[in-house]
Write a structure and sequence with these properties.
Blueprint: H1 2-44, H2 49-60, E1 69-72, E2 75-78, H3 94-110, E3 113-119, H4 122-126, E4 131-133, E5 136-138, H5 159-162, E6 164-174, H6 180-189, H7 208-213, E7 222-232
Antiparallel strand pairs: 1-2, 3-6, 4-5, 6-7
Helix pairs in contact: 1-2, 2-3
Length: 258
């Protein structure tokens, strides 16, 4: 009995940890695909943030699509909130997918996910590669083969370089397995010490990782995961002043610390 009690606690922790890391791996694979879809949407829609955010929400929705959550009178609610305990319908419905996408968009608004447009950046539009017509600043995308490949003095980019879109996405994955969620969060958020040499934090102050691992919300333990994607622009990049809470006040451009 004593041996069983000693071994069972360690074995249970290993099993729960395996389940949690499998969920993190699933989220990472989904995020890799979402980064590709985000870059693709930006490539086809003038590198505009609204298009990339919609594509990101669409690609990440499978993680949160469940028959237990559906649209009820314009608000997404779970069966438990609606007082239904007999179980959901067998088949997924459109409202289930809609609620999943809304959840991802809420994560963007709340800072649990961030899309950073690395390229083209502000300097790409301030140099000689950009053109301003009718109050619209853009980088030409046509006939790139025949345009000069000489880099611009301000941005250090050629017009071909400026027509590469690169996105860096940070995603704060919520740990769901009891006990293991606190352990992983503590390892990420705390600095290593003599008693806890397994820790590998903390993150830089003000960074996305620091906000993700903060314990200000005791009901949510998160771990940051990242993905990047690079793609050739299929439309002319346009200076876009809109981004969901990720713009700096001075330039209207995404500047997030990861």
């Amino acid at each position: 009995m004593v041996e069983f009690v000693v071994i069972a606690s360690v074995l249970l922790l290993l099993i729960m940890g395996t389940i949690q890391f499998a969920m993190i791996y699933q989220a990472k694979i989904t995020l890799n695909y979402a980064a590709f879809e985000t870059a693709r949407a930006g490539s086809l829609n003038n590198a505009r943030m609204w298009a990339m955010e919609l594509a990101f929400a669409r690609a990440m929705a499978p993680l949160y699509t469940t028959p237990y959550v559906k649209d009820s009178g314009g608000t997404c609610k779970s069966d438990f909130e609606l007082g239904r305990f007999e179980g959901p319908e067998v088949a997924l419905q459109l409202s289930n997918v809609k609620c999943a996408r809304e959840h991802v968009r809420d994560m963007l608004a709340e800072g649990h996910a961030r899309i950073l447009l690395v390229n083209p950046g502000p300097d790409s539009f301030d140099g000689d590669n950009a053109v301003t017509e009718h109050g619209r600043t853009f980088i030409p995308n046509d006939n790139l083969m025949y345009r000069s490949a000489f880099p611009d003095a301000l941005s250090g980019q050629s017009v071909q370089d400026a027509n590469l879109i690169k996105v860096h996405i940070g995603y704060c994955f919520e740990l769901l397995v009891p006990l293991v969620d606190r352990l992983i969060n503590r390892m990420v958020a705390s600095a290593p010490s003599t008693l806890e040499p397994e820790n590998f934090g903390p993150a830089a102050a003000g960074s996305f990782a620091a906000a993700c691992t903060a314990t200000h919300d005791p009901q949510r333990y998160g771990v940051p995961i990242y993905a990047q994607a690079v793609m050739r622009m299929q439309s002319e990049p346009v200076r876009d002043a809109f981004c969901s809470g990720q713009c700096s006040e001075d330039s209207g451009w995404p500047r997030a610390k990861f």
